[in-house]
Amino acid sequence: LQTRMQSLQPDPRARYRSVYEALKKMVLTEGLWRPLRGINVTMLGAGPAHAMYFACYESMKKSLSEIFQQGGNSHLANGIAGSVATLLHDAVMNPAEVVMGRLWVTLRPYTSVLSCVRSVRRTEGLRAFYRSYTTQLSMNVPFQALHFITYELLQERLNPRRDYSPRSHVVAGAVAGAVAAAATTPLDVCKTLLNTQENTALSSAGIRGHLSGMANAFGTVYQLGGVTGFFKGVQARVIYQMPSTAIAWSVYEFFKYLLTKHSLERRT
């Protein structure tokens, strides 16, 4: 829904006024399972990407906190650790997001994930899978910095003893995701345009070939949608990120607690 609603020149059948209308129309006209298209490539990329992401974050947060605020929790350390972890995460997820974006946009001629990968590689080359990588980083680095800082800040207020507390993890994760998502929507719109290479939009802007680079993406979005164009799909993005980050933190904190408890029991 977010990708569809961020379209600068949407297909007439994919013009939506709200998230509810978009979901209802998509299911009625394209089938019940259409909103879940691309879930296999999402799962394939998300596993290793998040493993590196949280491992890097925990390691760097611990090391940097000792430097910036020994024995305490440093928000600067949290932000830097989250930013560096994003480099590894996006290196794995960027090709997956390119494929997902192509599958999600209306009237794309791809019948499966493999047909999409083959078509993109044949017509645009392997470089196409990383065309939006720098833009993705320029979006995700501030997103994750805001995300982790907000999460850790809320944990200090809601769960100062840092015990395993499912309620505080859910609330802090959801709010952190919403804040970061809303603030970085303009960058996400540019990333979506680079990933999908929306033909109608590029033609309207007089662009031949493929759009590349964040500066070009910003210029194209402004040319076609003005300032409001940078906030297309913000509602869908916030609605998506809130449960996403809440679930991610809840699952992560649960396994962290479980594995730490198991390790302590083995030592004793």
From TrEMBL:
<dbReference type="InterPro" id="IPR023395">
    <property type="entry name" value="MCP_dom_sf"/>
</dbReference>
<feature type="repeat" description="Solcar">
    <location>
        <begin position="1"/>
        <end position="63"/>
    </location>
</feature>
<keyword id="KW-0472">Membrane</keyword>
<comment type="similarity">
    <text>Belongs to the mitochondrial carrier (TC 2.A.29) family.</text>
</comment>
<keyword id="KW-0408">Iron</keyword>
<dbReference type="GO" id="GO:0015093">
    <property type="term" value="F:ferrous iron transmembrane transporter activity"/>
</dbReference>
<dbReference type="InterPro" id="IPR018108">
    <property type="entry name" value="MCP_transmembrane"/>
</dbReference>
<keyword id="KW-0410">Iron transport</keyword>
<keyword id="KW-0812">Transmembrane</keyword>
<keyword id="KW-0813">Transport</keyword>
<dbReference type="GO" id="GO:0031966">
    <property type="term" value="C:mitochondrial membrane"/>
</dbReference>
<keyword id="KW-0496">Mitochondrion</keyword>
<keyword id="KW-1133">Transmembrane helix</keyword>
<keyword id="KW-0406">Ion transport</keyword>
<feature type="repeat" description="Solcar">
    <location>
        <begin position="164"/>
        <end position="258"/>
    </location>
</feature>
<dbReference type="Pfam" id="PF00153">
    <property type="entry name" value="Mito_carr"/>
</dbReference>
<comment type="function">
    <text>Mitochondrial iron transporter that specifically mediates iron uptake in developing erythroid cells, thereby playing an essential role in heme biosynthesis.</text>
</comment>
<feature type="repeat" description="Solcar">
    <location>
        <begin position="73"/>
        <end position="157"/>
    </location>
</feature>
<protein>
    <recommendedName>
        <fullName>Mitoferrin-1</fullName>
    </recommendedName>
</protein>
<dbReference type="GO" id="GO:0048250">
    <property type="term" value="P:iron import into the mitochondrion"/>
</dbReference>
